[in-house]
Amino acid sequence: MENPQVLLFLAISFASSALGGILGMAGGVFIVPLLTMVVGVDMHTAIKASVVSVIACSCASAGLYLKEKLTHFRLAMILEVATTLGALLGVFFIGSIPDVYLILFFSFILFLSAQQMFAKRNELSFAGNGKSQSWVSKLELHGSYVDREKGRVDYSIDNLPLGMVLMFFAGLVSALLGIGSGVLKIPAMDSALKLPIKVSSATSNFMIGVTAAASAGAYFIQGEINAEIAGPVVLGSVLGSLFGAKILISLKAQRIRVIFVFILLGLAVQMLYSAVKGFIHG
């Protein structure tokens, strides 16, 4: 591989993971379309390199979120059971789905996530709504964090069973698209579980590494990870995720939501165009 191409991989993965770090999605949601459309990497190869980079992103930025007490570890471990099962199931289907259908499905998922995140909610209305199931309270899944502008923010968790179902499908999508599933986890936590956006992002960042590890392990055993591509992508992803995590901590919650929606819509349009072009020429 030539040096200019390595630098291009580094630049793409850094920028993608910085954006992903801000949104708690790692960089997979951006790396896959950029590698396929800008560099011309095969879709399946890009997906598998992206899955490896997701693990690196999650590990790199976890310390910063832990320091700020944004990650809800207890909830993450419960939801991760469903997500990992979905990811393992997705591994068995990826080779049987043509690229053009994967791209079209990718576009649909991005549009869906943007639509769900478009509905803005008051971040201060999470405390003690009394509607959560008693067993959720027994598991001590409610929590709080300190926002640099708002001070202490208390939040409660609702609809845990629905959240588990959504996490299963998020894991399935993660394996199929190599996106770390944060693109679905954050809307699910925001809409179904009613977590603050910063907590959703930080908790998603922690979870996506575990989910991606399940998929990456299977790909590694099958010998399907291209080290020449995955290497520079992982390096750029680590640096980018650290940069993005620092930005997330300092940004206002509503700005994170706006960035999330616009980036997802932009990528959705690009991938839809790519899918339509594939159908026309395919």
Main sheet: strands, sense, barrel: 2 strands, antiparallel
H/E order of the elements? HHHHHHEEHHHHH
What's the arrangement of strands in the largest beta sheet?
1-2
Global Rg: 18 Å
Q: Let me know the number of strands.
A: 2
Low-confidence stretches: 122-132
Average predicted local confidence, pLDDT: 78
- The count of domains is 1
Report how far the terminal alpha carbons are from each other. Answer: 29 Å
Q: Percent of residues in beta strands?
A: under 5%
Q: Please bin the fraction of helical residues.
A: over 70%
Bulk shape: globular
**Main structural class:** mainly alpha
Number of helices: 11
Folded structure, characterized:
74% of the residues lie in helices and 4% in strands. The chain is mainly alpha-helical. The chain has one domain. Helix 3 packs across helix 9 (197-221) and helix 5 (99-118) packs antiparallel against helix 11 (253-281). The chain is globular and about 55 Å long. The model is unreliable at 122-132 (pLDDT under 50).
